[in-house]
Design a protein that fits this description.
By secondary structure, the protein is of the alpha+beta class. It is about 25% helix and about 30% strand. Strands 1, 2, 3, 4, 5, 6, 7, 8, 9, 10, 13, 16 and 17 form a 13-stranded mixed sheet that branches. Strands 11-12 form a two-stranded antiparallel ribbon. Helix 4 packs antiparallel against helix 5. The longest helix is centred in the middle third of the chain and has 12 residues. The two termini are about 15 Å apart.
């Protein structure tokens, strides 16, 4: 059994919902119960990939259709795709890709189960007023501070942190062979305290008011106003894909991953996939890749 990292780059707001909400947001996004960190369920990735696999390998890799599901299991497993980088509005540099020590530590733990190279160390914070950026190449600092939403934080340089090393390593994995986006990630990477990230997870997601009009009167229907939450455009999520060959498939680990790559790539360029809900209003267009 082989394991590979997966990366998802949201090209439009991504709504992986939980159904009806209990707060002022009618349609919230899925979040982990203990941490409150947003995620995309593994089924929300596996389902669209299965639908796009149109040849005989579909049953071998993804398993039989539901009426024959007892014949054998599929040969690919996708974990939940968990938040790695959250885009947050910044006074300088337009926006920052924000992460935290806990998100990086969890990512490094997942990466350790693959053949990926070792990752930089996890930065330690003296207090919540600090943030770590990639030194002179960063576009986020303004007079020694980084301004995220209505927060002002003291910028720290690579001499104090591994922010630049993380930016280089992540850029190579998320945007391979695309130096422009690699440079953009390095210019905008910002590592903040875990507690501060928890605040941003509650305030920096995208909330949209939606209405349903009466066809004739063009006024809002009774009960036709609701609020939807989404992860903003440029969000980066990551998870694991596990190849699990069995006697029914007759395929090796590499052959299984080759099928997945053939679905998500065309002529060496990733093709956008639609993930999550609200497809008809442009939500959930994403680039997906296996590291």
């Amino acid at each position: 059994m082989k394991t590979r990292l997966t990366f998802i780059h949201a090209l439009s707001p991504l709504h992986a919902g939980t159904g009806q909400g209990v707060d002022i947001i009618d349609l919230p996004i899925a979040r982990e119960k203990a941490t409150g960190i947003p995620f995309l369920p593994g089924s929300s990735l596996k389902g669209p990939l299965r639908d796009l696999c149109g040849d005989a390998r579909k049953i071998k890799v993804f398993g039989p259709e539901k009426e024959n599901a007892s014949d054998h299991a599929g040969a690919i497993v996708f974990s939940d795709q968990r938040l790695l980088l959250l885009p947050v509005r910044s006074l300088a540099g337009t926006f920052a890709w924000v992460t935290s020590p806990y998100l990086l530590q969890r990512f490094a733990r997942d990466a350790a189960s693959t053949s990926a190279n070792e990752w930089p160390g996890i930065p330690a914070f003296a207090d919540e007023t600090q943030c770590f950026i990639a030194g002179a190449e960063s576009k986020l600092a303004l007079d020694g501070k980084v301004y995220l939403e209505d927060l002002d934080l003291m910028a720290q340089t690579p001499a104090d942190t591994d922010a630049a090393s993380w930016a280089d390593k992540l850029g190579e994995q998320i945007f391979p062979q695309n130096e422009t986006w690699q440079s953009s990630l390095k210019a905008r990477l910002c590592i903040v305290h875990d507690d501060l990230l928890g605040f941003l997870l509650d305030t920096a997601t995208e909330i949209t008011a939606r209405i349903r009009l009466q066809p004739d009167a063009k006024t809002v229907e009774q009960g036709g106003l609701w609020y939807e939450e989404a992860l903003p455009t440029e969000t980066i999520l990551t998870g694991l894909a596990l190849a699990t060959p069995n006697g029914k498939t007759g395929m090796t680990d590499d052959e299984i991953f080759a099928v997945i790559n053939a679905i998500i790539e065309k002529e060496q360029r990733p093709q956008p996939l639609q993930l999550g809900g609200k497809a008809t209003v442009g939500r959930g267009l994403c680039n997906v890749r296996l590291a």
